[in-house]
Amino acid sequence: MKTLTPNLRFLLSILFILVSHFAFSTPNSIVHTESDDCSMSKTHVGDCWTTKVVSVTPANGKFDIQILVTYTGQGGGRNGCKALSHYSIEAADNAFSNVSWAPVTGNPSGNIELSLGNNDPFDGFKLDNVSGIGDADQGSFTINYTLDYLQDQQFLAKAGNDYTQIASFSKNEFTTLANSNCGSNNSNDDCSDYLTMYALDDNNPGNLYFIKLGEDPVTVHTEGDIQGLQDSEDMESLAIDANGDLFFINVKRSSKLYKIPKSELDQNENTPVNAQFIGNTGITGSNNKITNLTFINGELYGIGVRSEKVYKISTTDGSVTQVATLNRSFYTSGLTVAGDGTVYLIYTKNNGDESELWKFNSFPSGDIEKVLTIENSKKVESLAAHPNGFLYAADDFNFFKLDPVNKTTEVAIAYKSDIEGLAFFYEKEENCFNANNSDPCTDGATVGTPTANDPDGDGINNECDLDDDNDGILDTEECEVLINETSFEVRNGNSVNFTLDAVGTGFILDITKMDNSFNLTINGTPLTTEEIQFQQNGTPTGQNIRFKDGSLWGKNGIPQIYQFGNNINPETPIVRFVIDENLNVTMYGSKTANGELEELELFNGNSFNSFTWNSNATNNFVVSQVVTGPTYINGRVYGTYVNCDTDGDGITNNIDLDSDNDGCYDVVESGGVDANNDGILDGTGFDNTGKVTGGTNGYNGANGNEYNAHQLTITTSPTDKIVSPDQSATFTVVATAESATEYNNGNPEYNTAGNANAGIQYHWYLGDPNNGGTALTNSGIYSGVDSATLQISLSEGLSGNEYYVKVSHTNNPCLEEISSATLTAVWSSIGDRVWFDSDGDTNQDPDEPGLEGATVTLDPNTPNDPSDDQTTTTDANGAYIFENLSAGTYIITVDVSTVTGGIPNGKTASDLIQNYDANGLDTPNESTVTLAIGEDNLNQDFGYLTSSDETSGGNGGGVESESLGDALTKIYVGRKKNSVPTEFVKNDENKYDKKKLQKMQPKSKGQTMLDMFPTELVSGDVAHVTSPTDILDYTIADEVLSVDFSLNGQTKGVVLGIKTSDRVYNHTKASCDRLRGAEILNVQQIHVNGYNFLMQALLQRNGEVEYAISFAIGKNNNDTNYDVQTNWYVNHYNKFNDMYNFQVWSTQPAYT
To answer: Which of 101, 565, 631, 711 sees the fewest Cβ atoms within 10 Å?
Structure first.
């Protein structure tokens, strides 16, 4: 351990005397001038009122001010003082907050208004609607408020219409009060032991020293021997961050940055001080070395001794980024920042001239100006700001106290020593210096007890709380609303253009996928001097952006920027750039997919350009890329505008857990985890800034959903479906979503139907998704699982499944509507009997046998494709069935040639003729049926009987037995008298030869009834003309013709035609003409070439069964076409000039 030199001991002793003389206090203390009266009072114009500035308290970079207003006049008195109507205070716009008031004496009343009327001579705020003070009412009241910075202020006591009763205080007067040392209940000696000063001495460069202020007698302590230097000692600068870690520059050979962790500061001279090498700044040369260090807003800055370059220095790797160039060229060896935020530096002169104090007009712009000359100084090489508002500097002979406000200097003490890089550090270990030991951040706040100043009950008052409602969203982000959101996906160097309306106050770029760089142009100016490059190798510039902690993409477990995958949520991008109207640029990045956003910084020579923002016109933004290998960028851009009470309910967003009043908490809408649904980010506690600790997905920025109310409704639910198992099925849901168009008394109104439909999301489940249901995927039989329509390609095995659809919305995670429908998949069937209709009545009687062995074929309505037919054989009861059928149309065909049982004795299958099926006999042995889904059609029966050998001839037709009894008798007698047989005798003389008969008819007769007769019934038959011509004498018949068609001497079919004029033949009906003691077995409707006919089965007395059809055709004289009629009742026929009345009967329905 090195020994302390006499010079250093002398110096530090002198310094202790010096600093003991200084009025030490922390930036948060209430300080006053050395006078006994720490306040300042002024009388208003008119002598009716006084305003007293009671206190000016620096607090967290701002200033808390209290004034006392007193009525000193009398109503109607010397000045005619009148009652106070309002009290106005001048303040710059958006530079004041925390305004409150309280009566002190008398009974004044009023309310605070944060804006002034048009008649006030200045802008600011006021106590309005005042009553109870002035005129004859004495009294006083206080007003408390916070200023972002000190400024000139006027105070107006408006009484009547008088706007001239003003008192004024200057910025310097406020500053003087802020820099005074009154108001503390603790003496400097009481608090001095809470301040520690660390020092480096160029004559003893290997040691670190400290003084514990308040000790008596003064003692200079050795902290320890500094270990870990890479070069010999030449330490010229010292700075300490908010964590208590020391940083210094060793300028031997090059400017290298070192760090002494706070844990090394054990105030034990027997233990070494281990310094950590941070990195080489790369700055070399005696004129370039960094001899000035200070922390400003948490960032380390330094200035080259003669280079005029201002650097931001990374505390992670020592790399530097030049942020400005001084507009003056001189030797500088001192840099500090005062409590009001002003950055000062020393113009060091070593030629015998006096050194000077300069300041930055806007750090770090490089624009500096002189503040004062340090009188009687020489080569000043150190500068430090004291919390009492003064600056302190030292040359080789004196220690100076500088007042930058009043621009005065004085020698605090004379000493002689070669000291460089002297630095002060004050560590506030207690709230000792706050008036009455109070802390504005915690005074009156208790964890778990909400108050007006701490509404979230986290123990941190709102003035220090960064999240006033603990919803995981910073208060600074709860006044922004997203506008003009535009998504993009571009590649190969294409650009994205975005225009922000004049109402917008900020611009945000969210990137969800990128390879591997981009740039942003704002109103024609590139944001940065170089392409913003995220990749280390193979790029024109190399990587020039990183995390503020020094982390890089592609190292230490952080993926390359192009390796984050395709599932990045828009609300949690991999990169976010935020630019506001004040030209502030904040950059964020994530180290994991959908992870927390951390702040970024430029380095490696990249820096921001100066650009402009149009306050009253649109702002234009262009996102572009330099093509280097695969090049693409996906994301969204959007603007923001300020609205601190979105729903207009009178509760500002920063303390409103549901800012848009859509029923969904802000914490959920921003992506935070709130499992207990109390609107607060779940976590383990709170830090000293009021943020929730241990939470998930908090403090990663607002995404706009918090301030845009949405609703969602299912307008049409999916309906139950019944299908065949081999068929497909679809379920469809219809939903609508709206975003609020306006608010009424805090409630969102949705006046544009469907204006948010684009954000509707669908997903289908098998079973209830909230009770174990399974989410479906687009695979196998399922498709459209993320759409409004679920498609199922095959329903087999799914009968009874209940399918649920969950409908949600991208802009409101709380919106969820669920509906369901059931799938029923069932087969259909066809069947019945093929039976022998013993009595021919077409009804299945219990004693009528089935026809066993009949072949039944089922065709799925593809008559020309037998490959898909099904065939079965009837059982002993004649029953058949086809099962597991889909819905559709089928053709059933019966082949009785294979029948093996159920036929009467003496008959064979060839004797069977059909007399019934469900479709009618127009398609023999065939029936067509259309099946519904799940229908069991078991009524498709087919009736058969055996045919008679022959039927009666046509000669006996044309008259019925009852009403024409007399005529029949005459016919019978006449035939006997003329030796005509009562049963017509067929011979060669009456054979039917249609062509021969047609030749014998007169030429001019036109179409005759003969022309309408068939030539033959079946091939090989023999036909005879059997016309009962004698009925012409007894009936209305004008002409008669009948032909019997025979096979093997047996009559198989007959056609009888009778022509009448102007009316139908009254014996046309077959059952009337042919009955004659016969029995009607059944009447069936058949179809022939699109015409409907009635066929009657008649059982004659001799056992013959005839199948007869009757109909009439007719036309009038001028008609071209005939009209075809078939009716049950004769009087239902329409009359025509010429009518042809036909009866057709045969032994089989098919012949008929």
So the answer is: 565
